[in-house]
Fold:
Amino acid sequence: YLIGMSDFITTREAAKELGVGIRRVQALITADRLHAELFGQVWMIPRSALDAVRVRPAGRPANKDKASSKR
Structure:
């Protein structure tokens, strides 16, 4: 079963769609947080894989310990 190439996007396209840089997309792939497949020398990302990283809010999560101990 082969998925059509229209179901895949490049790291550049993924970066644009996610609103991040290409290096960030590459880092997500390296950290196994974003599924991608290597076609020759080009990483291709299934469009459906973007949902796994898109739902995360931007920025660092609040430190609950510091937030509760503020004076």
Remarks:
- The chain has a mean pLDDT of 84.
- The helical segments are 11-18, 22-30, 50-54, 64-68.
